[in-house]
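Subject: mismatched residue count in predicted assembly?

I count 1221 residues in my input, but I want to confirm that the predicted structure covers every chain. Input:
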Amino acid sequence: MSTQVEPEPGSAGSTGPDAAPVPGAAPEPKPAGGPPSAGPGIGRMGALGMPVEAARDIRSSTRRLLQRLRGDRVGLLAVVLLALASVSMTVLGPWLLGRATDVVFRGLREGGASGIDFAALRRVLLAVLALYLAASTLQYLQSYLLAGIVQRTMYRLRADVEAKLNRLPLRYVDRQPRGDLLSRVSNDIDNISQSLQQTLSQLLTSLLSLIGTIVMMVVISPLLAMVAIISIPISLWMMRTVTRRSKVRFIQQWGHTGRLNSLVEESFTGHAIVKAFGRQREVEERFRRTNEELYRASFGAQLISGIIQPLMMLLGNLNFVVIAVVGGIRVAAGSLSLGDVQAFIQYSRQFSQPLTHVASMANVLQSGIASAERVFELLDAEEQSPEADPVTAPAPRGRVEFDHVSFSYDASRPLIDDLSLVAEPGQTVAIVGPTGAGKTTLVNLLMRFYELDGGRITLDGRDIAELPRAELRSQMGMVLQDTWLFGGTIGENIAYGNPGATDEQVREAATATFVDRFVHSLPAGYDTPIDDEDGVVSAGEKQLLTIARAFLANPSILILDEATSSVDTRTEVLIQRAMAALRSSRTSFVIAHRLSTIRDADVILVMDAGRIVEQGHHEDLLAAGGAYATLYNAQFAAAAAEVA
Amino acid sequence: MLIRLLRQHLGRYRRLLVVLLALQLVQSVASLYLPTLNADIIDRGVVTGETSTIWRLGGVMLLVTLVQVGFSIGAVYVGSRAAMGFGRDVRSALFHRVTAFSAREVALFGAPSLITRITNDVQQVQLLVAMTCTMAIAAPITVVGGVVMALRQDAGLSWLLAVSLPVLAGSLGLVVSRMLPKFRLMQERIDNINRVLREQITGMRVVRAFVREPQEVARFDAVNQDLTRTSLSAGRLMAFMFPIVLLVINASSVAVIWFGAGRISRGEMTVGSLVAFLSYFTLILIAVMMGTFVAIMAPRAAVCAERIQQVLDTPTSVLVPHEPVAALRERGSVELRDVGFGYPGAESPVLAGITLRSLPGQTTAIIGSTGSGKTTLVNLVARLVDATTGAVLVGGVDVRELDPEVLWQRIGLVPQKPYLFSGTVATNLRYGKPDATDEELWAALEVAQARDFVAAMPGGLDAEVAQGGSNVSGGQRQRLAIARALVRRPEVYLFDDSFSALDLATDARLRAALAPHTRDATVLVVAQRVSTIAGADQILVLEDGVPVGLGSHEDLLVTCPTYVEIVDSQASTREAA
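Triage response: the counts match. Full output below for your records.
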C-alpha cells in the first residue's frame, strides 16, 4: 500500500507508479513480471487458505489490478483527459471567484457602497458559471466512461476466473473449501468492483485537483504555497501510518468473509445431518466464533480507516490558520490583494479536501486490493499440464492399455503401484475388489482427471498424456457413483453429453434407460426444471438420468462406476439389458459391487490395495479358488443365507 | 424492509447510537463554528492587518478543530461498533433462521442464494449503516446548524438556500429512484453467478468428462454478461450524482457572490460575512453530498435488506411446539398413522396412507422402486419434513409435539447421500456425540466395517476428511456415516439406502455385526437389495408412494405381487450366474 499515494511533491503529472491509472497515459506498459517482487504465477506457495504474505503481494496486486484496467486503453486515456479538463476548470473557479471578490472589494475601497463595477462582476461570474457547467458535464462523461471500464474489467476478471477453473487440476479443486472459492468469485470481485467504481474516478479527480491547486497557489503566492505544500509530506506520513494498520485488517476481513462463507456453505449443504444429529448448537457456536472474528476485523478496518478523515481535517485547519496569518501580514504589508487571500484560502480548503479524499479513498481501495489479492491467488494457482496439440486421429477402436502405472493422491501413501492391464476393443472389463482398493482411481486416471506418477496409459497405442484432454474425454462416456445434475430441465440434463441431440434422440435415450417412465409422471415432462439439490427426483432417478446422459453421448469407451447403486433392482435388471446392447460395440469398464452383474465381462480384474491380484473370466477365476472366488462365495453365501 | 431490518437489529445499539448522536452533534457544532471564526479572522485580522488578532483567533480555531477531531474519532469508533455489530447480528440471525429451516425451505431459496444473502447482502446493508453512522448522521445536523448560522450571517441571502436545497434533493431523488430496480436485478444476478459457479465446482468431473467446458464457459458468460450489463447501467446512473452535486454547489456560490455583492454595495453586508456565508453554504451542500454518498448505497442496501428479511420472515415448516413434550412415553418405538405427504401445488402426493408400527428390537424394512417415497418416509420420522396428513409418533409421542432436541437425540440417521464434514475422521464420528471416547469410535468403526481402512489412513482417527467426504470412496463414506450414527447409540436407527455402495460381502458382514448392536433399538431400513432386508421383522413395500404390502419376507412372497417381482428381478440375476 505504501506506493498507493505518493505523488512526488511539486512534480506535476507524476502521481506515483501505482496510484492513478496512469497506464493509460503512459503508452508503454511495464511487463507484468518486471520487478522481482511481482513474481506472479509459478512457484507461489501453497493453497488458497495460506496466510497472505505481506506488503509485497499487496503492491503487486495493486499493480496487477490496475494493469487489468488497461484493456480499455482508449477509454482510460479519454477518462484521464476528461478528468484533466474538468479538474482544470474546477481549479480555475476559485481564482475567478477571487477576481469577483476583488471587484467587490475594490469597489468598496474606492467608491464606497456604490462603487462596485457590476458589469465587470457579471462578466466574471458568468464566466465562472460557464466553467462550472462545463466541468460538471465533463465529469459526468468521465464517470460514465469509467463505469464502463470498471464493469468491463470486472467482466473480464470473472471470465478469467471461470476459465481458470476449467484449467485447474482436480487435485487442487478437491482440496479447496467450496465456500471460500465461491466467496472469491462473488464477494471479492463484487468488492473490487465497488471500490474501483467508488474510488477510481474520485482518486483521479482528487489527485489532479491537488496538483492543479498547488499550481494555482504557486501562481498566486509562492510564499503561501510553500506553507500549504509543507503539509503534504505530513499528510502522506499520516496516511501511511494509518493505511499500514488498516491494510492488515482488510486482509483479515476478506479472509474471514471467505471462511464464513465456507462454513455457511458446508452447513447448508449438510443441513439434514446437522439437524438430525442435533448439532445446530455446535454449528451455531462455530459460526458465532467466525462471525465474531469477522466482526473484529471489519470493526478494526472501519475504525482505522475512519480516523484518517478527522486527522486530515486537523491538518487542513492548521494549514488554514497559518495561511491566514501569513496572508494577513502580506495584505497588511500591501504585497497581496484581499481577493488573492480569499482565493488562496479557498484553495487551501480545496487543497486539503482532495488530500482527505485521497486518504479515505486509499482505504476503500485497500479493501478492494485485499480482495484482489484473494482473486489473484486463485488465478495464480498452478494449472494442469498444458494441452497437447490436437492430432488427426483415425477412428477410435478403443484399445486401452495401462502400462506400469503408479499413482498416489498423497506422496506418502502410494495408492496404485505398477499396475498394467489391457482392454481390447469391444471388451468389457470389470473391476472388482473391496472398497478403497483403487477402482475409482483407475477411472480418474483413465479420464485424466489426475496425472500419473509413473508409467503410461495408452488409447489405441497413443499415450493419453499426449492427447488433448477434450479429445480423450469426448471418446469416453462416464457414469459415476456420485450423480450430478445442473440447474436446467430434465431434457437439457440428458442432452448434456450431446448438445446437438434432437428431442427424439433424447427421448430414445431416456426410454432405453427407463427415464422416460418417471419423466411422464412429472408435471412438465422433459421440461421439468431440476437441479442437484431439490427433491423433485430421487437419488435412483438421478442415477438413471446420468446413465441416459452417457447413453446419448454415444462414446467409444464406456465407464460405469457403480452406476446403478441407488437404483432399485427391478429397474437395474432392465437397465443392464439396455446397457448390454450399449456395451456390445465398445470397450467398457464396469465397476460393480454386485458380482452377479459383471459375470459376463470379458475380463474381470480383482483389485486389492492398488494392485491387480487376479484377472480372468468368471469361471476361470472361480475355478482358481483365489480372491475372486472368496469374494463371490462370501457374497453368494451371504445373499443366499438371507433370502433363503 | 430496510427500516424494519434496521429497527430490529440496531435496537440493541440504541445506547451506542445516542452516544454517537451526541458526539456527532458536538463535532458538527464545532465544524459549524469554524467558518464564523474564519470570517472573523478575515474581517478583523486580515483586512485590518492585525497579526495578533489573527494569532489569537487562529489559536481558538485550532482548539475548536481539536475538539472536532476528537469527537469525530469518537464518533467513528462508536459508529463502527454499531455498524459492524449490526452486520454480525444480522448474519447470526440469518444463520440461526436457516439452521431452523426444514429441507423444504432450504430448497425453496436454494443453498447458493442463502449463501449470497448471508455474506454479500449483509455486507451491503452493513456498509450503508457504517456510512450512515460515520458520515450521514452528521449531515442533517450540519444542514440545520448551517442554515441557522447562515441566517445569522445574513438573512437576506438565505432564500438562495431555499432554492438550491430542493433542487439538489429533487435531482438526487430522481436518480436514486431509478437506481432501485437496477440494484434489485443486480443482486439476483449475483445469485445467478453464484449458482452457476457452484454447480460447475460440484460437477467438475462431469463437466470435464463430457468435454462441456466450452458450453459451461458460455453459460457462465451469459450470467456474467447479465450482471455486467446491470452493473453498468447502475454505474452510469450513479455517474450523474457527483456532477449534479458539484454543479449545484458551484452555481450556488456564484449566485451568493452576485447577490452578496449587491448587498455589500448597499452596505447591508461585510465582505467577511460574504465569505462566511459562502462557507456555510458550501458546508450545507457538502453535508447534502455526504447524504448523497449514503443515498448511493441506499438503493442496493434496500434490496439486500428485502432479501434478508425474506429469509428471516420465512417460517420453518417444522415448527417447535410451544410446550414441547420433553420425554418419550415409551422407548424408541416408531409409529405412522395413515401418514401422507405432498409438496404444495403438486398433483399427486409423495406418500399416502402409510400405517406402520415398529417396536424396539424390531427391524422394519422399506422397499420399493426408485422414486416411490422411501426417503420421504425416513425424513418424516426424523422430522426433517412434517406429514401433511396423519401423524408420525416416536416413542408414543407425535413428533410435532416433541421437543426436536429430544427427538434428534434418539435418532441415528444415515442418509442416502452420506455427507461428511471437513475435519477429521474423529470429528465426523463424534458429530452426534461430542464426548465419545476413542474406544467408542473404534467400536463403532468395527461394526461399520470401517476399522481397517481408517486404521490404514495416515493419522487414523485424526486423518483428514475433505468437505463432503470427497477424499474417501463412496463405500468408505457410507461406512463412516453408519459409524457416525452408531456412535450415538440411538433408540431409533434410520438407514436410508445406506448399504448401496458396499459390496455384498461387506454388506453382509456389516449387518451381522450390526444385529447385536441394534438389539434394543427400532431399526428402519430402506434398501434396494432383497438380501439386505429379507431377515427384517416386517417389510413395507411401496409403489408410487402407496403401501402395497406389509409383512415378513415369507408372507409377502405369497401376498404381494410387487414384492415377488422385486425378488424375482434379483433372483434372476443370481440364478443366471
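The radius of gyration of chain A is 35 Å. Marking this ticket as 'not a bug'.
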